[in-house]
Amino acid sequence: MLPFPDGFLWGTASSAYQVEGGNTNNQWWLFEQQPRPEGSGIWNGDRCGLACDWWRHAEQDFDRMQQFHLNAHRLSVEWSRVEPAPSCFDRAALDRYRQMVGELRDRGITPMVNCHHFTNPIWLEVAGGWERPETVHRFQRYVHRVVSALADLRPIWLTINEPLVYLGQGWFRGIWPPFKRDPVAALRVYRHLLLAHAAAYHTIHALQPDALVGYAKARRLFTPARDDHAGDRLAAWLRRYLFEELWQRATQTGRILPPVGLGEYRADLADSFDFVGINYYSRSLVRFTPRPWSLFGQETFTPGAETSDSGRRGPYSELYPEGLYRLCLEARPLGKPIYVLENGLPDADDDQRPRWLLAHLLQMRRAMAAGCDVRGYFHWTFVDNFEWTEGWGLRFGLVALDPVTQERQARPSAYLYGDIARRNAIAREHVVRHAPGLLPLFDALSTATG
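The chain above was modelled as a monomer; its predicted structure follows.
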């Protein structure tokens, strides 16, 4: 038996647009309604529609979480529901979020609430969105309303999910709203997102002083395709710095463009996180190309590596569990608790997920044995949901969903994860049954923790 510390959080993660259904007042819904050139829209022309029907019936899945012994869930609040028009706040929407968070608490499930997960009200987009400095104040005002409604329920808080994914997809690659490839505008958005995070961080602490507040940061572990190739090393470093380190360092040092000494300094931004939140799915190998727009690199995968249902496209491809160990070690010097806030696999037939799950949990436990203060793990996701431009084409759920009938069927990995959560430990029998190739690592960790 390989135990975890008392109070360890075994959770799942979701976002409002992907599970609630009926979200028709934000830019993603608008995107779904507009025709796009072939290959640039949502897979198979899918629509979010009813999603997982959580706005009406989330409690049914909360009951299932409880049945699987999960003790935490991460969810987000939809800005366009709370503030459907400028300065017009919907009391009924806030009451529904309060009900959802309270229902989690009633089931012994610790709620983690995220304030921004890729979606904006249409009115905000029309007003210029995150390219406009006024959005910082507007976001702070919205966060104040949300926290005022929920603070006494004592959730853990996230300000923003994957800010540089949002920025990169929308302003560098141009494949998400607002579909731009404009590095000057991207720099403005980056600055405004940082300032909005800082404003939200201090707003939450003013209303819930003992709150844990952080953000969810995507980590891809960009690696040179050829260790002995200077161009590959440069291209991999550039990606890691821009998309993984830049934001983290800014929230440590207070400098908008660290470590450049001439960068703008903001005292309210410095040390503006109480824990390190890691979203990790896969790694990419980077091979040098002479094209500046591609940041001098092309992303590839290890030849012969096992891949997920996404094949060779997207950020969920190569299965590389050791990456989670490496990322936890990188976070340890920050001196903050660590939460793995997203970690998942698109695997519709669940033939990989049990082994994949054990491999990642063992690598996380390996990091803990090396001194990393990991306090929770949130699997993406509990029930199949709408995966942005991949639509219903990628299935991440521990529970399978038919989005037409809303019927659910627990996959074998749900029972495995539930039993780990129930025991607060990985048992040898779990490894023997699902991933015998991992027995040497399991035995070594069991001996070390003795």
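The mean pLDDT is 95.
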